[in-house]
Amino acid sequence: MIENMKLHKMANAIRFLSADAINKSNSGHPGMPLGMADVATVLFAEYIKLHPVAPKWFDRDRFILSAGHGSMLLYSLLYLTGYKDISLDDIKNFRQFGAKTAGHPEYGHLDGIDMTTGPLGQGISSAVGFAAAERMLNARFGNDLCNHYTYVICGDGCLMEGISEEAASLAGHLGLNKLIVFWDNNNITIDGTVDKANSTDQLARFKAIGWNTLSIDGHNYDEIRKAIETAQKSDKPTLIACKTIIGYGAPTKCGTSKCHGSPLGEEETAGMRQKLNWNYAPFEVPSEILNDWRQTQNRNLPAYDAWVKNAAAKGKPFQDFIADKLPNGWNRGLEELKKKALLEDPKVATRKASEMCLKAIVPNVPQIVGGSADLAASNLTFVEGLKTITKSDYNGNNIMYGIREHAMGAIMNGMSLHGGVIPYGGTFFVFSDYLRPSQRLAALMGVRAVYVLTHDSIGVGEDGPTHQPIEHLASYRAMPNILTFRPCDVIETAECWELAIAEEHRPSILALSRQGLPLMRKSVNENLSKKGAYIISPAQGEREASIIATGSEVHIAVAAQKLLREKGIDVAVISMPCMELFEEQDMKYKLEVLGNKPIVSVEAASTFGWNRYAMKTIGIDTFGASAPADKLYEHFGITAEHIAEVVKSLL
Fold first, then answer.
1. Is 206 found in the same domain as 124?
2. CATH number for the domain including 433?
3. I need a surface site. Which of 11, 63, 148, 400 has the fewest CB within 10 A?
């Protein structure tokens, strides 16, 4: 235990590094780093299990700064504890172009940043995924290889965002007792005091959903210690309400919203130096205090050395597992499925084809963890080989998320970032709107997650426009670093699943049909979906035009091709299961597929974006309607006859 006076000096090092960096950049949020410096100092100096020399140590504790606007708190901690990839110059370059020290913590910029945080509520919600992954892998490998905590610092904003309710509720239900959240209870938001907008009793709320709750003075080191030790012994996740003063030490701005999102300024910072007896120049940390900080991490060396020994004894299979490396031959089942489809010529919905794929994937990918937002029976995401985890048994590979799409997306991110888990989760495509903030973060961080999004068009039918996605495909194609797959049959579905599982650095969407679709592919010698688009039905002679289609519209396009052929017009049909992958191909291949004749695109969704390829677009630029699917396709002109007429009009 470090004496309290020394802890106070160490905490002040955080405060002044943060204040000086924010002043220099003339941009940032000093209030939270100043207010939570004492809590963070006790946690990092005396409790958290890290090893800055080996920052990716698998059994380290995870730390999530959910209140990401207070990023200078984390950057200061990383520098002070001795992470090698952050220097004092990085601190001085806070928020500057190209700096590792971005305005909010960015995963991959610096070791010690376990996830990108910024959108409030995402951090605390993803932390549930980290904690769930830890418990599942602990059940699989035991305490010697996986036994650590997930710590979170959050603010009032994180708790007000609705996603936190969904995720915290599930954490309580699952009894994720290795999850410890420090709530910076300072009663201040950007617009003023919290009570202007919120009067929730957060401790009562969290207690009601199955959490252990504690309340402390966030500037009292003994209370902070006692709270951490109590939380570590709890059989529930713990929320620690840390009553703090925002901008602690700032003589005129502390305790007010004035220090929340604006630099303190030189005069206020000078006053804070005097008040806290910090007689050092900007960015100066006395060697004695810096050495005290660096020495704190030596306490973790025995645990690290023991883990390295245990992991070495476990061998390469364990190392590959936690590195999310796919086993050799993991996709053999998919290859067999494709060959079988050629022989049997099945007519099934691509959601059913996805279920067939999962039956081939789950037994062969040990890191796979499935789940659905209470729609497994419709998404067909629960297959043999999956076992749902419970509070009393974490030895499983499926999560029942309940009706919590928001939380599901964030929890999937947390599990993927933790390592040792390749997550997939299902819901209806139209409800992906609830997933979108987490999907965007997944794309931004470059993590592997697969979203099984069924009922992908007006083919939903009688459920009506509330359940019929229209703009969703276009919107995901507009999002950077995410793959949007829309396969047309069993074989394309298997190819897309293979690509999604193998993709290590971006998430994938599988948009899948409710209605049955005929087999369109004639060979399985090559994964043609890998190139994003290909000619699925060539012209018999010289191509006069092309029809591009995706998913459930491919077979309609081929029917239109036959009608045109009867009229003496020879066209090619292009299947485009993934526009993003097609855009990554070289120009020679693109021109070979697209040709140099008129193109018509066909998709039962918004036409937005298709004009990059097509002279005419056939789609839906209104909302849908409630009726049987075949009637809707006829009403919106997505028929072979209408497609043929549009092609003829171009010629």
1. yes
2. 3.40.50.970
3. 400
